Structure formats: structure tokens, C-alpha cells
Amino acid sequence: xxxxxxxxxxxxxxxxxxxxxxxxxxxxxxxxxxxxxxxxxxxxxxxxxxxxxxxxxxxxxxxxxxxxxxxxxxxxxxxxxxxxxxxxxxxxxxxxxxxxxxxxxxxxxxxxxxxxxxxxxxxxxxxxxxxxxxxxxxxxxxxxxxxxxxxxxxxxxxxxxxxxxxxxxxxxxxxxxxxxxxxxxxxxxxxxxxxxxxxxxxxxxxxxxxxxxxxxxxxxxxxxxxxxxxxxxxxxxxxxxxxxxxxxxxxxxxxxxxxxxxxxxxxxxxxxxxxxxxxxxxxxxxxxxxxxxxxxxxxxxxxxxxxxxxxxxxxxxxxxxxxxxxxxxxxxxxxxxxxxxxxx
Length: 344
Known about the structure:
The chain is of the alpha/beta class. It has eight helices and 16 strands. β6 (about 105), α4 and β7 (about 125-130) form a beta-alpha-beta unit. α2 packs parallel to α3 (about 75-80), α2 packs parallel to α6 and α5 runs antiparallel to α7. The protein starts with a helix and ends in a 10-residue tail after the last helix. It comes from Clathrospora elynae. One of its GO terms (molecular function) is methionyl-tRNA formyltransferase activity.
């Protein structure tokens, strides 16, 4: 099924013209790979649109015990082995000169700001695929924050690359209003896959319609929609922390969907990793303090959230102990007591 954007935009013709594109594609992960594959497909289908694609990625990083293993970014193998594209590994643009002729830079989930020197080298400047309805959720983690902030809708924005700042370019295309609905149960990985496909389709449509050719037209609608606008900073360990005296059950579930494992601090100061929590469907009728407890007939630990609703902890790990066996140790800790409040 075609995306809402594609259904609308595919019917719009553009009188603008451009030379065949010599693209310098800067990417890293699965989100950027979707756009790269779409460009390669567009090149096969419309050879007069795209002449060449060179891929820039960050170098392999040491990983594992003793940092003895080098781990390549996912895009390296896909670009070089699957798509048979020339690749270039760089950790900085300082003193780096594109080894081939280029006239358009496309950066998707790259992580480095493409400097003016490189953009000036390209006749048509640069483009970026950003998975949010800009200006909302500017920053490196828009998908996770869309779930954490319980946004009802999100989308994709195709913007030009600003020479000095991230996510400050002219928006050439944006998912039509109201956006793409975010189901409460969707995970960040699932939403990323959906937005990656949407973004790849939109990017190709922007190229086919030559919207990157001046004069540029701002296609942003969200900025005037009166919707919320927040920044989406890099995810940190603290974003996974749960203080049951402050967190609602919806927020606990949002952390799980957006970030995976959460964690809390037990009254004795030990850390508990929360692998899976579910909504019990019940409200607290016994006036427990916010925190973990065992009900009289419960098979798994329960918790009272700040909102008064009850969640069930299905699987956990007591830090420093066997993976996934935290509930058994919690049982021994809490068996003889009514409740323990988790604290920060």
C-alpha cells in the first residue's frame, strides 16, 4: 500500500530540471539503509535522474572484550556487498575532499554535520530525511521521544542541510496532516521501520519532482498547527530510570516500548533491571505506597505507579545476579512485607 505522502505527491508534476544526480550519501544504520536502497532502485528505474551514488560512513569501531573486535556499521556491508556501491570511511570531514564529482549530498541518520565546504562542493547542496514532523522533535532521537512523550502522530520531514546546525533546513516535503498515528503498543524499532519506508518514498519523490532545485518552497505545515514542539536529545541511561513515586503506568510502558529495559533502585540501594512489565488493568484499592509489592495471590511482583494504577513485573534481573531471575530474589525480599517503595 502506498504511503499517504506518495499517493498525494506522485500525481504532482514539476517543470523543474536538473542534471543527472551525482550523490554523496552519508548514512549509518537501518533507517538510512532504507533510503539508500530506494535511491538505488530509483537509479535503475530512471537512469537519467541519478548518475552515481557514493556512500560515506563512519569507520569500524573497536568492540567486545578488550576492544579487540572491529564492528562495521550496517550500511558498510549493504552498500559495498549488496548494492555494489563505492564506499568511503571517514570519522571527520576535516581536510577530507570527496574523491569523486558530486552535485548533491544526502545525509540520513549520519551523526556528523556536513560542513559548508562540502555542501558548497555540491551544486544542489544537501538533503536530510528526518523522522519527525519538524520543527517538533529536532535532535538525534526523535523516534524514541515520540513514544516517550506519547505523541498521537508523527511523520517524516525532508529538509535541506543547514550549513551550521542540525534540523534547521528548509522543509521540502512533510508527511501530510495529521501525520502517521502512533499506536500505544508500538516499539521504537517497529516505528523506525515504518518511518524508514515513508522517508525513503518521500526522498525519491523529492528527487523526481526536483524540489531540491531553487527556488526552494517550504512545505512545512506542522509549525503552524499549534501542536507541541520539543527537542529530542540523545537517549541516556537516566531516561530508562523509573521512580514509581513520580512515574505513571503509561510512562513506565512508554519507556519499555521506546527504550526496552528500564531500571529502578530498590529501598536497599540495589538496582533492578525491568525487562517486561504489563498493565494489570487494576487500580490500587489497598492504598499501597508507590513501588514494588507482592499481592496475596500474585505469582509475579506488582507495582503501584504514581497514578494509582497497578502494573505487573513479568521478568527482571537483580543487578549482579543471573539474567532474568530477578523476580525470584524479589520474592525473598518482599515476601514478608506489604510493600517497598522504589526510590531514586
